[in-house]
Amino acid sequence: MASGRHRNPHRSITCDADGWFEAPVPPDGEVFLAADPGDAAFSFPAGLGMLRIATDASSLSDGIRVTLIPRGRASGIVLDPEGGPVAGAAISFAVKTTEEGPMTTAPHLGTSRTMSGPDGRFSLEGLPVGTTLAAVAAKVPFRKGLSSPFRIPEGGTVDGIEIRLLPGCAITGLVTDPAGAPLPGAQVRVTTGSTTRRAGPIVPADLPDEAVAGPDGRYRIEGLEQRPYSVFATLEGHTPADLTGIHATAAGTEAAPLVLVRGGVLRGIVVDAEDHPLPGASISLQGGNRSGGTATTDADGRFEIRPVLPGPHTLFAGKAGFVHRPPEDLELAGGEEVRVVLERGLEIAGTVLDLDGRPVPQARVRVHPLPPKEAEVLGVTMTDPRGRFSVGGLSSGSHGISVAAAGHVFPDFPPVAAGTSTLELRSARSVFIAGRVLDPEGAPFADAWVEIADAGGVRPPDPADPRRFRRLLTDGEGAFRAEGLLGGPFRILVRARDDLQEESLRDVPGDSDGLVLRMRRRELR
């Protein structure tokens, strides 16, 4: 069986008698493939684990090979720094994908997690045979420990694995309100910038790494390395607080109090121009000191956001099919109710066609404001199997539109009025430029930078537009080739070493092949 997932969705597919599978994938995202072969582990071309595949139209594959490999068993014991057994330690496994590379966490090795028993011992089935592994153990208040690397033999078992936990460091502190009163129930966590760990309570919890501040507002975070951390505290109805640069020590560093401020609530309703409530609208409120939050309107169009502190805030609201609403600045004192009106938008719809008038499925259509604003998109969609598309929620007036699809090149289209429903967007004929770069002696010049730019426009081309600007390196034979270009004539510029002059060709027509640019040495003065 194979499975793919995109964000949260999960789909299972059963292979046919020949081991093949096929599954639909989301456009312009990525999927992860994993195998569940029963009594075997699995390997992908990129190594053990899950195979990640981009799902843009240019990179989809129908020849993915999943190789099943036998499974084995590993067992051992977890010890504390003094050599005593450690019960209840979480055991996972790391894999070494190359001989020179480091051990890395491998959370997708089948059932690759277990817990140590009362005597500190553990045993785990389903590990891949013939792969260099290491067992990792974690248990508060200790630091993680790593076993020596091992390899499970064919059809065999590895016993006697020893994982020795390391002495842990700690951070302690207090969570209070502005008056200094303790706030029991506050959740505390630490982060190094790339990973986050929740605070362990003074009395260890059943679930490692998850806890809340005690009745006196105090917390203790254990099992840390001797290094600086950032400490965060949150409590429902309060604004979060954080401290940075807190160095964990073996004795337990006492951090400054984390002060949480109780906030108010902003209530409101979202309606359309006819005063009908709009369920499912997205609301976001941003203010200073982390005041604000996000919400989705209920069936009556209503929402609540908390915590909200007095002061200036910015309100954002939107819903699919309705006109983009500019942010609204609010001065809040607490307890206000707001009314948000969204205007139902117009639509631009049509069909994307190739040069021969055939529909282009899975083409990305973007609608943007005029004049264009950097990174602002009013709507984006993908064409269906018949090349059709529809982008709604547009204000009246004209908008810019662009199309991209693998294997096709599209021109710049004129502005389109919102409300247009029979638009045809046809691809353009593209051209290529190819040639060679030679050194001063006439030999092929590898790794020379070649810039190809459309010189037929009034303004220089945008370097971010691959239809009209390319920068590429020559290969080992000094050759270069750029396809999928629009416009022309083109300017070609070659840059190489500092001791050589730049060489260029101007007014080069499209579909030019066999161009030769020979470098010259700089004249010494």
Q: Any overview of this molecule?
A:
- The protein is mostly beta strands and 525 residues long.
- The chain folds into five domains: 1-163, Carboxypeptidase-like, regulatory domain (Immunoglobulin-like); 169-261, Immunoglobulin-like; 265-342, Sandwich (Immunoglobulin-like); 346-426, Carboxypeptidase-like, regulatory domain (Immunoglobulin-like), CATH 2.60.40; 431-518, Immunoglobulin-like.
- 0% of the residues lie in helices and 47% in strands.
- It is built from no helices and 45 strands.
- Strands 7, 8, 9, 11, 12 and 13 form a six-stranded antiparallel beta sheet that branches.
- The N and C termini lie far apart (72 Å).
- 29% of the residues are buried.
- The model is unreliable at 1-9, 36-61 and 194-210 (pLDDT under 50).
Strand-helix topology:
Layout: E1 2-5, E2 10-13, E3 30-35, E4 40-43, E5 51-54, E6 67-79, E7 90-95, E8 104-105, E9 114-115, E10 121-128, E11 132-138, E12 145-146, E13 150-151, E14 157-164, E15 169-176, E16 187-191, E17 196-198, E18 218-224, E19 228-234, E20 238-239, E21 241-247, E22 253-254, E23 258-259, E24 261-262, E25 264-272, E26 282-287, E27 292-296, E28 302-308, E29 311-318, E30 328-332, E31 337-342, E32 346-353, E33 364-368, E34 379-382, E35 388-394, E36 398-404, E37 416-417, E38 423-426, E39 431-438, E40 449-454, E41 469-473, E42 479-485, E43 490-495, E44 503-508, E45 512-518
